[in-house]
Amino acid sequence: MTEGTIMSWEILDGAHTALRTAVAGVSGQDDWNRATPCERWTAAQVLQHAAGDQIGFAAAITGGPGPDEDPFAPSGTLAGDPAELAERAMRASAAAFGTVARDAEAVPTPIPPHLFPADLAVGACALDAAVHAWDIAMATGQDSPLTPELARALMPTARVIVDPVRAWGAYAEALPEIEGDDDVAALLRYLGRDPRWKA
């Protein structure tokens, strides 16, 4: 990779598109107070968590500042424009991963063991954005922004990184697979989410 080159990571682009779509589809402030598939968190708290995680991934790579608040204890109070909060966080992670070579073997992340090959590091960042995009969309009555293609691409990363962090509460226990599940349902169940969840 030559100096100044910005690499495009398609999986992260796809996850960011999903999160951007979900945030744009929230119709008003009241919807940000809705319950989500993340037990005990509102849509606003899920957004704050997702944005904080994107900044956390960026900070791990760049050494820059982390999120303003603990992503695992979001306040639920959105002081500014939700879309700008999401965009600022996604720009940070995209720019940070833009400096990472595809063949890098030890990319810093906020997830133990904190160093991953590039494909797993970017996959972890994308998985976080994509699943929380789904949470926000489901909470606010939108269609799923998580496509089968994106879910299929994210599953190999999920199978590596998710089990070790379930104990933190980062992901719930996996739900049993059901015959006939598509790629989206299979990923959601592995992440402890019911694909049929409704607000």
From TrEMBL:
**GO molecular-function terms, A-Z:** metal ion binding
Note one Pfam family from the annotation. Answer: MDMPI_N
Name the SUPFAM superfamilies for this protein: DinB/YfiT-like putative metalloenzymes (SSF109854)
Q: Which domain of life is it from?
A: Bacteria
- The segment(s) forming the Mycothiol-dependent maleylpyruvate isomerase metal-binding domain are 14-137
Cite the InterPro entries for this sequence.
CHP03086 (IPR017520), DinB/YfiT-like (IPR034660), Maleyloyr_isom (IPR017517), MDMPI_metal-binding (IPR024344)
Q: What's the protein name?
A: Uncharacterized protein (TIGR03086 family)
